[in-house]
Amino acid sequence: MNEVYAFIEAEKTTHNVALLCRLLKVARSSFYAWLAGEKTRRAKQAADDALAHEITVLHLASRGAYGVPRIHAGLRRLGHRVNRKRIERVMRERGISGVTRRRRKGLTRPAKRAVPAPDLIARDFHRTGSEDEAGRRHHLHPHRRGLVVSGDLAGPRNPRDRRLLDG
After folding, report:
1. Do 93 and 86 touch, CB atoms closer than 8 A?
2. How many helices (H) and strands (E) does the chain have?
3. For residue 140, what are the contacts with CB-CB under 8 A and spacing of at least 6?
4. Cα angle for residues 126, 128, 131 (degrees, 5° grid)
5. Rounded distance, CA 13 to CA 9, Å?
6. Buried (b) or exposed (e) across 20-53, using 16+ Cβ within 10 A?
7. Which of 37, 28, 2 lies closest to 20, judged by CA?
8. In Å, what is the CA distance from 5 to each residue of 39, 139, 166?
9. pLDDT of residue 43
10. Can you tell me whether residue 164 is helix, strand or coil?
11. Which residues contact 19 (CB under 8 A, 6 or more apart)?
12. Fewer Cβ atoms within 10 Å of its own Cβ: the N or the C terminal residue of the chain?
């Protein structure tokens, strides 16, 4: 939308603003609101440029190692009250980023000719007797009024609904 308003601003000397707004299908009030906010946008851009200069000084003093948290702490020590997210945005827009100088331990890579370990336990993971079709276990427990189903097939959590009365 800024491009449309900038075009209207550039062409308002040769054409009527109302005509341009009608042709470009924007409200005239929106154009004038954008025009009134231009001074504020320029002031914010100038403040961001000054902040970017301070950030660059701190970043170069750290030999390019400091990221957003340490830059924020450094600016606080210098007396600047700046939001961390604003510092993050300015650094991202200017391409300033911190570097970790620590050596990272690499992940071990398996040998290319490694032989898989043999299964020494020889476990069998197939179904056994008290499981249903999905492989879930269920048990019937005696209760004072009858039998109660527990486990995955128990159904509702209310004990009265789980009771199986014999008879």
Report:
1. no
2. 7, 3
3. 147, 148, 149, 164
4. 110
5. 8
6. bbeeeebeeeebeebeeeeeeeeeeeeebeebbe
7. 28
8. 15, 74, 81
9. 92
10. strand
11. none
12. C
Ramachandran region of residue 39, left (φ > 0), alpha (ψ -120 to 50) or beta? Answer: alpha
pLDDT along the chain (167 residues), means of 10: 81 84 86 86 91 90 86 90 90 85 72 77 65 54 56 52 48
Contacts of 67 (CB under 8 A, 6+ apart): 97, 98
Do residues 138 and 150 touch, judged by C-beta distance below 8 A? yes
How far apart are the C-alpha atoms of 39 and 145, rounded to whole Å? 82
For residue 47 the two structure tokens come to 């403040």
CA distance 27 to 64: 47
Residues present in the chain in total = 167
Helix (H) or strand (E) holding 138: strand 138-143
Which residue ranges make up each domain of the chain?
1-36, 44-98, 138-167
Q: Which amino acid is at 114?
A: A
Q: Where are the alpha helices (DSSP H) in 12-158?
A: 17-24, 28-36, 38-61, 68-77, 84-94
